[in-house]
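F.,

This is the one I mentioned.
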């Protein structure tokens, strides 16, 4: 368990259950999520590439009255339990459709920016555990993230090609490696 995130969730639940102002603990949780050195994401079964063992983040409409949500986990064990419960693996059972993204690579910022660009309205944090829904716009505002641009990692060759052809970059998720599954013999 991620103690920092769990403490923030407890403060939020205490405020909600005590009918007191929940905004400060909610914003504290939002900041704590973005400050994590690594987060885990449910990955798309449809976009899975067997050749590379990668996929893109899952954006689902199963919760939040059909509004698109990004499924994020603060802890690998919570992500693994969710994966097992929903059998969210590749057909050959070689990979769990869960991926880890480190903050230090700018990949985390890009992932959230691209998800918002694609119309994601919510972050489903730790679904299957003590979950919390986070409003995507509030996530950006609370963390002081600029919403006017999207950081997409492209090679110098791709950048030069775009400049030469006066084209715009195609916005897409950077593929994320799926977690390999081990089999008990």
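My design for it:
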């Amino acid at each position: 368990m991620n103690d920092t995130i769990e403490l923030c969730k407890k403060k939020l639940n205490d405020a909600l259950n005590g009918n007191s102002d929940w905004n400060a603990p909610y914003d504290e949780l939002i900041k704590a999520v973005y400050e994590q050195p690594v987060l885990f994401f449910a990955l798309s079964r449809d976009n899975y590439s067997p050749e590379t063992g990668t996929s893109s983040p899952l954006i689902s409409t199963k919760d939040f009255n059909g509004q698109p949500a990004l499924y994020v986990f603060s802890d690998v064990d919570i992500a693994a339990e969710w994966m097992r419960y929903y059998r969210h693996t590749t057909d050959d059972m070689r990979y769990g459709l869960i991926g880890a993204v480190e903050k230090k690579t700018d990949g985390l910022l890009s992932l959230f920016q691209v998800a918002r660009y694609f119309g994601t309205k919510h972050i489903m944090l730790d679904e299957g555990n003590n979950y919390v829904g986070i409003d995507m716009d509030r996530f950006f505002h609370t963390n002081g993230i600029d919403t006017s641009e999207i950081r997409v990692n492209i090679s110098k060759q791709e950048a030069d090609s775009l400049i030469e052809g006066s084209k715009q970059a195609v916005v897409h998720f950077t593929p994320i490696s799926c977690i390999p599954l081990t089999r008990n013999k």
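Strands lie at 38-42, 54-55, 59-60, 69-73, 95-96, 98-102, 122-125, 132-135, 176-177, 179-180.

Talk soon.
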